[in-house]
């Protein structure tokens, strides 16, 4: 059973315009070579979002608040999460969601999701769809009519 310390986690640093400190994605699943589900710790600086509003056709997601307060936006509903709170997003539910740190301190959340062989990620406020086929090296981006389009990121 491999055990990894925090300094061994694969880290992505996400520069943030609104903050002098970057956000971070600390990959647990990639560090351990897991393929059936994704697991990470998302560190959001004050004023930052985890992503733009989206929903998945074939992948479930779960968020567990570890440190600080973070707001979950799902559709038009906003809910503040505190340490120990959990949010779940079922595959195929056509309501977009994201996390936003509206507090004055960094937040940390454990994020876990299934890894479907194929997933369609819809970004309803950006007229974009990401077609993810894990057997292919790159995602394919289209608008909602199916025409090729750039990533909204």
Which key features would you list for this structure?
single chain; 153 residues; mainly beta; Jelly Rolls; six-stranded antiparallel β-sheet; four-stranded antiparallel β-sheet; 1 helix; 3% helix; globular; metal-binding; Cupin
Low-confidence stretches: none
CATH class descriptor name:
Mainly Beta
Distance between the termini: 37 Å
Average pLDDT, rounded to a whole number, is 94
How do the SSEs run, as a string of H and E? EEHEEEEEEEEEEE
Number of helices: 1
Assign the CATH topology. Answer: Jelly Rolls
Tell me the Rg in angstroms: 16 Å
Number of strands: 13
Proportion in helices: under 10%
InterPro entries: Cupin_2 (IPR013096), GPI/OXD (IPR051610), RmlC-like_jellyroll (IPR014710), RmlC_Cupin_sf (IPR011051)
Pfam families: Cupin_2
Keywords: Metal-binding
Domain Cupin type-2: 41-112
How is this structure best described in words?
With 153 residues, the chain is mainly β. The protein has a single domain, classed as Sandwich (Jelly Rolls), CATH 2.60.120. It is 3% helix and 44% strand. The chain is globular, with a radius of gyration of 16 Å. This is Cupin. Keywords: Metal-binding. InterPro entries: Cupin_2 (IPR013096), GPI/OXD (IPR051610), RmlC-like_jellyroll (IPR014710), RmlC_Cupin_sf (IPR011051).
Offer a concise description of the structure.
The chain has 153 residues and is mainly beta. Helix content is 3%, strand content 44%.
């Amino acid at each position: 059973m491999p055990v990894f310390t925090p300094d061994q986690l694969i880290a992505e640093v996400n520069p943030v315009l609104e903050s002098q400190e970057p956000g971070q994605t600390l990959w647990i699943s990639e560090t351990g070579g897991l393929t059936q589900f994704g697991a990470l710790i998302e560190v959001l600086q004050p004023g930052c979002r985890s992503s733009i509003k989206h929903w998945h056709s074939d992948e479930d997601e779960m968020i567990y608040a570890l440190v600080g307060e973070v707001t979950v936006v799902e559709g038009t509903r906003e809910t503040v999460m505190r340490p120990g709170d959990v949010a779940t997003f079922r595959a195929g539910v056509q309501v977009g969601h994201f996390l936003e740190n509206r507090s004055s301190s960094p937040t940390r959340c454990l994020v876990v999701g299934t890894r479907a062989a194929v997933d369609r990620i819809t970004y309803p406020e950006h007229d974009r769809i990401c077609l993810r086929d894990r057997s292919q090296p790159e995602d394919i981006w289209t608008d909602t009519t199916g025409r090729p389009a750039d990533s909204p990121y």
